[in-house]
Amino acid sequence: MTRCLVLGGGGFLGSHICEALLKAGHSVRTFEKERVSRENVRTFFRELEWTEGDFTDPHRIAEVLRGMEVVVHCIGTTLPKSSNENPVYDISSNLVPTLHLLDAAVHAGVRKVLFLSSGGTVYGIPQRVPIPEDHPTEPLTSYGIQKLSIEKYLKLYRHLHGLDYSVMRISNPYGERQRPNASQGAVTVFLYKAMKREPIEIWGDGSVVRDYLHVSDVARAALALLEYKGEFRTFNVGSGAGLSLLQVVESIRKVLGHPVETLFRPPRPFDVPVNILDISRAARELSWRPSVAFDDGLRRSLAYLSQPGPG
Questions:
Q1: Is residue 149, in this structure, part of any structural domain at all?
Q2: pTM score
Q3: Same domain membership, residue 254 and residue 206
Q4: How many helices (H) and strands (E) does the chain have?
Q5: Same-domain status, 232 and 142
Q6: Domain boundary among 186, 221, 237
Q7: What positions carry a catalytic annotation?
Q8: Tens digit of pLDDT for each residue in 125-141?
Q9: 69-115 pLDDT, tens per residue?
Q10: Does some domain include residue 310?
Q11: In sequence order, which residues have a C-beta less than 8 Å from that of residue 6 and are 6 or more positions away?
Q12: By CB distance 3.0 to 4.6 Å, which of 132, 164, 226, 269 could disulfide with 278?
């Protein structure tokens, strides 16, 4: 049993990782901002040690790190599409607190940090597809730059202090517990609008291609990295395949069984034309491959959104 701290454990990705860790027999302490909803962890809340506080408070972070062996860092305060509007906030609320976290982790004797980075933004416009981990990194958003900066600092802290780490460069996760009214997460947002027979807004002509991965496969990858002791530190975590936005809409139409209305908006400058991750390293080193096909994941998301409460 490993004592794990999951930062952002009440969120979409964090709650699934918490649940997977608990099912695997690990001890889990979560850290969330004060008065955040506990709905995502409701079914297993009694198995957690739930803690709250301000991520930007280094003293509070030092407190919750005590006794922990592994830290899973899921906290993020910005979105790719809005981060360029205020890069200073992006850095001050994400990068700087993470450096305080790493300092505290060294002093607390933490063995490993597992960081959820962004395979969808750190590479920028791809020079080749699928995109391997050694591809040049030229982010087009402050969000991608701060994720990449945290990756670099993790490498530095390993060199200086021996703090082990793994980086998950996740593609575009979707699935149960993702907020359907959020500003990101095209699959869930589109599905929810289509369920209500509301028009789906598409930025551009719908040809943008993304790599969509069901959240349960993200959690499985996190479990695999928990005890990984191989030579690599950075892993792409995606489906290894791409779907255009128009293909996503068509899949939703088939799952729902009724027409779906679309509205096309001007393209956004930070949207790269294609992003598909090469996941061969994870397959080889972790014996991990995605297990949920896209249409199956859509059906699971539909069942969740159809319950009383979500949305």
A1: yes
A2: 0.96
A3: yes
A4: 11, 13
A5: yes
A6: 237
A7: 143
A8: 999 999 999 999 999 99
A9: 999 999 999 999 889 999 999 999 999 999 999 999 999 999 999 99
A10: no
A11: 14, 17, 18, 21, 28, 29, 30, 31, 71, 72, 74
A12: 132
d(C-alpha 108, C-alpha 295), whole Å: 44
Are residues 286 and 224 part of one domain?
A: no
Q: 40 with 73, same domain?
A: yes
Report the number of distinct structural domains present in the chain. Answer: 2
Q: Assess whether 22 and 167 both reside in one domain.
A: yes
Burial of 266 (0-12, 13-18, 19+ CB in 10 A): exposed
| Phi, psi for residue 285 in degrees, rounded to 5 | -85, -35
Q: Which residues pair with residue 30 across a beta bridge?
A: 6, 50
Same domain for 293 and 162, yes or no, is no
Segments forming the whole domain that contains residue 76 = 3-173+213-237
pLDDT at 308: 79
**Quick one: 72 and 220 in the same domain?**
yes
20 and 156 in a common domain: yes
Give the pLDDT band (50/70/90) at residue 309. Answer: low
